[in-house]
Specification:
The complex is a heterodimer. By secondary structure, chain A is an alpha/beta fold. Chain A contains three helices and nine strands; from the N terminus they run ββαββαββββαβ. Chain A has a single domain, classed as NADH:ubiquinone oxidoreductase Nqo5 subunit (Beta Polymerase, domain 2, 2-Layer Sandwich), CATH 3.30.460.80. The longest helix of chain A has 15 residues. Classes of the chains: A alpha/beta, B mainly alpha.
Chain lengths: 235, 184
């Protein structure tokens, strides 16, 4: 947590001026009009992300950013780092996917950074964010400095390739398999990228936004469960 | 008339099948495993209030080799399905399967990609028990109904004929996947 935000309530969303709006979502489950008895038909919700932060980020965020930029410069990767987002007392570095492996190596090895532990690899699907539909988020923890950061890369849906970080953080093995299973992100250089949760012959990647919700055939004595977007809809 | 006339009092005659069935149903040991909230009701059934021990089945065997009954208590995820099948395969014959609750019977409220829509896709089920979750009384009732099946199980050549007959009846019956309309 940065010095400026100390004493302030944690987990406040960014003020509206610092947000980046990408779209508007109306209703829920594809239902429109007043026929919807769920009460969500008139819902209007802005889809917004926290915008890029300006220097100074505050507290140790600047030290980490300085050290990371110096490490990237010495490795000849000046353009590896994209925007930096500081949101709800946490910092996220957006990295070009082709430079991910070098950045992660620097984050682990640099004495001023020393992010020894990869806590989690997760995927996000933004179907409306053309050209960067799939995001992969790496949560890093530095035992030495007691700091936590996030590193985020994006890939287009047409070419969902992201370099694997198993060579740097072996723990990423199963995390990347799960991200492949659920989101369909291909991790180049992974030792054995196979499905981990779903059966091997499963079609599709269930956590993508365009994956159908429910509606699985029950095959038990005429039992049918319609998908949520076909329930209670009278229009 | 026959042998019965010459027997002293206090001796009862029956068939080997009857005795075997009686012994089997009176020491009907379930395998110890639960998958979700139904397992809590299953454990309660074994506790002092509902006391399944009255029916000779208080011992939940930790090893499937020693178990006669598999109570599938809870929703079966795609990841769990091969494990459930392996437990079933490890159990020695004769063995029975009880699908406890709607999730194990038909997927229940979990109509999504993660859950197998009924454990009968994975193992043959002898008794379906509805409820979300079923009360311990319902579980005990289902097991007592299963006891009747166990009691009437045949042996040897009769068993083979019984399997044949059940198989033919199953082939003649309308598959559950072809039944249309409301659940019944």
């Amino acid at each position: 947590m940065s010095d400026e935000t100390q004493g302030m309530p944690e987990n406040l969303p960014a003020p509206p001026g610092q947000q980046e709006q990408v779209g508007v979502r109306r209703g829920m489950f594809g239902v429109s009009g007043t026929g919807d008895t769920s009460g969500y038909g008139g819902l209007v919700e802005a889809i917004s992300y926290p915008g890029a932060a300006e220097r100074p980020y505050g507290g140790w965020f600047d030290e980490v950013a300085d050290a990371l930029e110096a490490a990237a410069r010495s490795a000849g990767l000046e353009h590896a780092l994209g925007s930096v987002v500081v949101h709800r007392g946490e910092i996220t570095f957006h990295v070009r996917r082709e430079d991910l492996l070098a950045v992660m190596t620097a984050l682990r090895n640099d004495p001023d950074l020393r992010f020894e532990m990869l806590v989690s690899v997760s995927g996000v699907h933004y179907p409306d964010d053309t050209g960067r539909e799939l995001h992969v988020v790496y949560h890093l923890l530095s035992m030495t400095w007691n700091r936590r950061i996030r590193v985020e890369v994006s890939a287009p849906d047409a070419d969902p390739q992201v370099p694997s970080v198993v060579s740097v953080y072996p723990t990423a093995d199963w995390h990347e398999r799960e991200t492949w299973d659920m989101f369909g992100v291909l991790f180049e250089g992974h030792p054995s990228l196979t499905r981990i949760l779903m059966p091997d012959d499963w079609p599709g990647h269930p956590q993508r936004k365009d994956y159908p919700l429910g509606g699985i055939p029950v095959e038990y004595k005429g039992g049918t469960v319609p998908p949520p977007d076909q329930r209670r809809s009278y229009n | 008339m026959g042998l019965e006339e010459k027997l002293p009092s206090g001796v009862l005659l029956t068939t080997v099948e009857g005795v075997a069935g009686y012994f089997r149903k009176a020491s009907f040991w379930p395998a110890t495993f639960g998958l979700a909230c139904c397992a809590i009701e299953m454990m309660t059934s074994g506790g002092p209030k509902y006391d399944m021990a009255r029916f000779g089945m208080e011992v939940f065997r930790a090893s499937p080799r020693q178990a006669d009954l598999m109570i599938v208590a809870g929703r079966v995820s795609q990841k769990m399905a091969p494990v459930v099948r392996q437990i079933y395969d490890q159990m020695a014959n004769p063995k029975w399967v009880l699908a406890m609750g709607v999730c194990a019977s038909s997927g229940g409220m979990f109509n999504n990609y993660a859950i197998v829509q009924g454990v009968d896709h994975v193992v043959p089920v002898d008794m379906y028990l509805p409820g979300c979750p079923p009360r311990p009384e319902m579980l005990i009732d289902a097991i007592l109904k299963l006891h009747d099946q166990v009691q009437t199980t045949k042996l040897g050549a009769n068993r083979l004929a019984q399997i044949e007959e059940l198989e033919n009846a199953g082939l003649r019956a309308l598959p559950t996947s072809d039944m249309k309309g409301l659940l019944r």
